[in-house]
Design a protein that fits this description.
Blueprint: E1 20-21, E2 27-28, H1 32-45, H2 51-57, H3 59-62, H4 66-81, H5 83-90, H6 100-114, H7 120-133, H8 140-153, H9 163-166, H10 170-175, H11 180-187, E3 193-197, E4 208-209, E5 215-217, E6 235-237, H12 244-249, E7 256-259, H13 266-272, E8 277-282, H14 285-297, E9 304-307, E10 319-325, H15 339-343, H16 346-366, E11 367-377, H17 386-394, E12 398-399, E13 420-422, E14 436-442
Bound molecules: S-adenosylmethionine.
S-adenosylmethionine binds next to α13 and β8.
Organism: Komagataeibacter diospyri
InterPro entries: MeTrfase_RsmB-F_NOP2_cat, MeTrfase_RsmB-F_NOP2_dom, NusB-like_sf, NusB_RsmB_TIM44, RCMT, SAM-dependent_MTases_sf
Protein name: rRNA methyltransferase RsmB
Length: 444
């Protein structure tokens, strides 16, 4: 399996740096890509920081070229996607547990040998150099010996391994029940790029039109800012599954509609293009800026952006409809954020469900009688999806299941209760989709 291109050890067109002496006085060539990958993986598995936060903390990333940052990010994501398998491959060669930083170097080496196109000699040599740059000189011999042995065995090392199972923490695997294997298989791949096209615009050429209307490009095939129509706001990036909750709310022109957790605004934009009067509520100041910028690019100046906690905010008159895209564990987006698998804990889910119930109760109180709310989460966890639908009903919200006609374009996503459940293994031959749960209720 080779999901992403090889990171370039030294980008073309850059003058090679002179390097700095290692602890033995020899010169070590700079290699920002692998330094950044090291910082990210150490940040995730040792300090339990999210990938993006680890990248922000990376000293190597501060002075790196954008291209090296991107390559380091991609290499780190590949390690995190295949970490269980890589550790399994390493285990016969390690008589005792190496220090964490040494394991990080070994993981970077194995990912290049088994999951990327890096030539074996380069994967081994750059890992030994990385160990030296990181002050792990006493372990350079171990890194060299282990990776040479992995390289000698090649991809045969993967035969007989249950990679899908190894690459998912056991508590998550169990929580996904029968869906665990198809989900886990899909997590090994970089996700494609999906666009939602504004109703009056043309899609950029070359994409695949997906059920529901999203336009899809293969991972890494295009740069979104270079696509024709980007500057004019003809489309925005949104996974096909993420486009479904707003679509299923079916806001009508002139309706008063709130998007309670709005930033960065993909669903706000969908609601605004229906002609509804849209209130976009967002609690985080920095995310509000992003929301405003995204709406401005799309020319959606009529949206009322409100910086407030949606659990406290109340409209001046009852609403016709609400989209509650609640904050959640985001396990449905692990394809994009493989770090989340190794950072989240079961107790994080419980913490989220309390906030989800508060927002559901607030939604109920904002609606006019008969008004509707679509509750959605980008989570694969039943506690945040199916179990919250039961909680909503217990709060007096009346279930209003999605009909087979409403989901005729993706019938496999309709549950027996009439809710929406997507997961990364759905439409796997076409690149899959994020995991989402959505359910609709009415105020009595
Ligand atoms: C899942 S994201 C929403 C994604 C967004 N709906 C979209 O489609 O682009 C959740 C957002 O809700 C915001 N949020 C979380 N709790 C909130 C609250 N109590 N009130 C308002 N916004 C909240 C977070 O800051 C975050 O921006």
């Amino acid at each position: 399996m080779k999901p992403s291109p090889s990171p370039s050890p030294r980008p073309a067109g850059r003058r090679p740096d002179k390097g700095r002496p290692d602890r033995r006085g020899g010169k070590v060539a700079p290699d920002p890509t692998r330094d950044i990958a090291f910082d990210i993986i150490e940040g995730v598995i040792v300090h339990r920081r999210m990938l993006d936060t680890s990248l922000d903390h990376s000293v190597a990333a501060r002075t790196a070229e954008p291209r090296d940052r991107a390559a380091g990010h991609r290499l780190a994501a590949t390690v995190l996607r295949h970490m269980g398998t890589a550790n399994e491959v390493l285990s016969p060669f390690l008589k005792r547990e190496p220090p964490e930083p040494v394991r990080v170097v070994l993981l970077i080496g194995v990912a290049q040998l088994l999951f990327l196109d890096t030539p074996a000699h380069a994967a081994v040599a750059t890992s030994v150099a990385l160990a030296r740059r990181r002050g792990l000189v006493p372990f350079a011999g171990l890194v060299n010996a282990v990776l040479r042995r992995v390289a000698a065995g090649g991809t045969q090392a993967l035969e007989g391994l249950d990679q899908a199972r190894l690459d998912v923490p056991p508590w998550l695997w169990q929580s996904w029940g029968k869906l665990a294997r198809p989900i886990a298989r899909a997590l090994g791949h970089e996700p494609p790029l999906d666009l939602t096209i504004r109703p009056d615009a043309e899609a950029p050429p070359g994409g695949e039109v997906m059920p529901g209307g999203s336009v899809r490009f293969a991972a890494g095939a295009v740069k979104v800012v270079d696509l024709p129509g980007f500057a004019e706001g003809a489309f925005w990036v949104q996974d096909m599954a993420a486009s479904l909750p707003a679509r299923l709310l079916a806001a009508q022109p002139g309706e008063r509609v709130a998007d309670l957790c709005a930033a960065p605004g993909g669903k706000t934009a969908q609601l605004a293009f229906t002609g509804a009067e849209v209130f976009a509520i967002e609690r985080e100041g920095r995310r509000i800026e992003r929301l405003r910028a995204n709406l401005a690019r799309l020319g959606l100046s009529g949206v009322k952006v409100i910086h407030e906690d949606a659990a406290q905010w109340r409209p001046d008159a009852p609403l016709d409809a609400i989209l509650l895209d609640a904050p959640c564990s985001a396990t449905g987006t692990i394809r994009r954020h493989p770090d989340a698998m190794w950072i989240k804990r079961p107790r994080d889910i419980t913490t989220m469900t309390e906030g989800q119930d508060r927002l559901l109760a607030a939604s109920r109180d904002m609606l006019r009688p008969g008004g509707r709310v679509v509750y959605a989460v980008c989570s694969l966890q039943p506690e945040e999806g199916e179990q919250r639908a039961l909680a909503a009903a217990a709060m007096g919200l009346v279930p209003d299941p999605f009909t087979p006609e409403e989901l005729a374009f993706l019938p496999q996503a309709r549950t027996p209760e009439g809710w929406l459940r997507t997961h990364p293994g759905m439409l796997a031959d076409h690149g899959g989709m994020d995991g989402f749960f959505a359910a609709r209720f009415r105020r009595a």
